Recover the amino acids of this structure.
């Protein structure tokens, strides 16, 4: 949650900063940028204050003997189910910010780009255990050639 | 270098990068100091900095990348600031390719791509010694001989290799050179299977030609070559545009009449042109079944033979763009795995545009087992979906008007601009109704049938076994209206099919019917689940009560 807040904050500051700078220095663009800045400002404020907590409250995941399940999202909720037999690869990703906070993202990829599950913001140890478990289970489950 | 241990990329990558860095520095030095005058030197300096940084990141990559091959899986770790750890089970691996560009080849380095069923390559080991690359390949693919086997053989040896994006589902042969089909008959691409009786499903009929020449884009067929001709003749002093003006007497009429006249001339020409193109492309068209292979042949100047194996066939799709639908026409294509989307076979189309009834008749014989999922009775979606689409139709232009209005207030646009987008309303509202009416889904025997689309209505029949995952989406309005969008992930065709805005009950019944075992684990009893999954708060409680062995994302 802290991670998401920070991420949202960085994005917000970055985008608004660039646009603001353009607004200040480029006279001709003011007419166009003014309204955009106002709206983006509101959007990012909501993003920083409301979104992380909401997402944290919604986010759930589970692995069973033969499938992975995840629920995520805030305004739009998204449930995903992928059977282990269809898993192609398992990724763990730890970005710089995530490294600081000791969390990781697991990505489970299938043959369809949309069938990808990513479980974000896991404790590093939990992530490692989960990946080990998934790896064993995936290797034990024969892949069916879809 | 033991079996369980982590291995590194080739040390030669380091040498190569060091040399690259030195060369970049030398070039930069040359640019900045020796040629120290104003001129195009800064480009040289920028290039050398980029080269140096590239070499540096490559070094870091070498330092941090480790991979290992265990009996069960292949793993790779990489990254310094942003770490990445990737695991692929051994039996998912379909291809091991190695490639090298010129400079790495001088260092005897190879980039090894290990591919599983994903769309891209799963691993790119950049780079390994050529010996190490060959060893890795033997290790991962013991069954495959070193010599590249012909495509047809490889397919037989590895029947489960259908996921490979690089491998074509069908063996395609194109004989260019204009010999026509008689010369081609003797050397058709891919050997026909033994013991399969040949059954011709469809042949080109001349009645099809008029069906395929009606097109909105007819004039474009004419205008394109004309423009090319115009630009081609201009250097020779021939002003085609001027000649055309004189011929039709451009200056004697108003603009509108001129446009109408041009359309009147161009349209019939376009129709004739597309009819000609259709005939050339589909000359001698034949769709036949030989045992368990579907063979299609077509083409006058270039004969294309495409073979599709039943084992890779996952279903059928029918596409009906709005205009064709009014004329009762449809285009049929197969949904197969591993078929590369190329210009030649853009979407696995097996039939030209036909009357819907005729297309269905042939489609029923194309599918193995003779089922007719495309004619199944489809369930319409709830009324709420219509309301939502009408809503989009209104607030799309409304939003655009609002945005334009804001710009008007801030002085960037003149005042008459903003109501313009409201002109779209009479178009979007009927489209919303059309879109709603095309929404439907059904379960028919071993097939899932899904239909959607406004401008182009697409019906897809997909085998149940081809479903490799589900994703359910529910936005806020959908939650209020008790609807959800079901996404079907599959390895075949477009790889993702959607059932937008189904009722929650419908959606869950759909999933339960399609994959009962999988659904049983995650969906609970119908009544309870239907209650549990639609409301936000009840959903949370419901999930929490089941959360005994369930991990919870701990973010920070």
């Amino acid at each position: 949650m802290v991670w998401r807040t920070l991420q949202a904050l960085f994005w917000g500051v970055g985008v608004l900063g660039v646009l603001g700078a353009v607004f200040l220095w480029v006279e001709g663009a003011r007419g166009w940028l003014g309204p955009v800045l106002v709206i983006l400002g509101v959007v990012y404020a909501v993003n920083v204050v409301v979104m992380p907590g909401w997402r944290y409250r919604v986010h759930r995941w589970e692995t069973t003997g033969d499938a992975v399940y995840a629920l995520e999202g805030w305004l739009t909720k998204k449930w995903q189910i992928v059977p282990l037999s269809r898993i192609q690869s398992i990724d763990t990703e730890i970005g710089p910010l995530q490294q600081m906070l000791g969390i990781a993202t697991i990505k489970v990829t299938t043959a369809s780009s949309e069938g990808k599950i990513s479980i974000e913001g896991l404790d590093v140890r939990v992530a490692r255990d989960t990946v080990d478990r998934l790896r064993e289970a995936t290797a034990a489950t024969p892949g069916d050639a879809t | 270098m033991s079996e369980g241990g982590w291995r590194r990329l080739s040390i030669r990558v380091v040498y190569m990068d060091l040399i690259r860095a030195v060369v970049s520095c030398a070039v930069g030095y040359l640019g900045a100091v020796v040629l120290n005058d104003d001129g195009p030197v800064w480009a040289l300096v920028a290039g050398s900095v980029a080269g140096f940084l590239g070499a540096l990141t490559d070094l870091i990559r070498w330092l941090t990348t480790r991979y290992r091959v265990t009996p069960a899986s292949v793993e790779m770790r990489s990254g310094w600031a942003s770490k990445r750890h990737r695991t692929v089970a051994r039996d998912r691996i379909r291809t091991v390719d190695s490639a090298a560009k010129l400079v790495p080849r001088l260092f005897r380095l190879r980039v090894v791509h290990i591919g599983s069923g994903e769309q891209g390559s799963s691993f790119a080991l950049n780079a390994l010694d050529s010996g190490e690359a060959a060893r890795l390949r033997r290790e991962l693919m013991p069954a495959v001989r070193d010599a590249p086997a012909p495509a047809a053989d490889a397919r037989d040896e590895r029947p489960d290799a259908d996921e490979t994006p690089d491998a074509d589902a069908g063996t395609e042969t194109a004989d260019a050179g204009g010999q026509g089909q008689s010369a081609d008959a003797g050397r058709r691409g891919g050997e026909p299977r033994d013991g399969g009786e040949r059954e011709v499903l469809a042949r080109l009929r001349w009645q099809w030609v008029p069906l395929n020449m009606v097109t909105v884009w007819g004039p474009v067929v004419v205008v394109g070559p004309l423009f090319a001709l115009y630009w081609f003749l201009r250097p020779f002093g021939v002003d085609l545009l001027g000649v055309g003006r004189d011929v039709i007497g451009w200056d004697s009429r108003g603009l509108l009449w001129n446009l109408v006249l041009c359309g009147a001339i161009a349209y019939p020409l376009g129709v004739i042109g597309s009819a000609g193109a259709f005939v050339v492309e589909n000359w001698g068209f034949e769709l036949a079944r030989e045992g368990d292979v579907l063979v299609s042949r077509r083409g006058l100047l270039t004969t294309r033979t495409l073979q599709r194996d039943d084992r890779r066939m996952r279903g059928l799709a029918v596409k009906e763009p709005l205009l064709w639908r009014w004329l009762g026409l449809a285009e049929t294509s197969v949904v197969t795995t591993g078929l590369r989307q190329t210009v030649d076979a853009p979407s696995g189309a097996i039939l030209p545009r036909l009357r819907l009834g005729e297309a269905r008749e042939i489609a029923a014989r194309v599918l193995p087992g003779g089922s007719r999922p495309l004619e199944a009775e489809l369930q319409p979606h709830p009324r709420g979906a219509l309301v939502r689409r009408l809503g989009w139709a209104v607030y799309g232009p409304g939003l655009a008007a609002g945005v334009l209005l804001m710009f008007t207030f801030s002085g960037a646009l003149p005042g008459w601009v903003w109501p313009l987008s409201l002109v779209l309303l009479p178009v979007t509202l009927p489209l919303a109704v059309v879109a709603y009416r095309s929404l439907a889904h059904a379960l028919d025997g071993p097939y899932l049938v899904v239909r959607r689309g406004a401008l182009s209505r697409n019906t897809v029949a997909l085998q149940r076994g081809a479903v490799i995952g589900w994703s359910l989406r529910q936005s806020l309005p959908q939650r209020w209206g008790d609807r959800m969008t079901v996404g079907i992930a599959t390895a075949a065709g477009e790889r993702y099919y959607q059932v937008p805005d189904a009722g929650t009950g419908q959606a869950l019944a759909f999933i339960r019917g399609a994959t009962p075992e999988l659904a049983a684990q995650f969906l609970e009893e119908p009544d309870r689940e239907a209650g549990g999954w639609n409301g936000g708060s009840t959903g949370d409680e419901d999930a929490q009560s089941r959360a005994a062995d369930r991990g919870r994302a701990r973010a920070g």
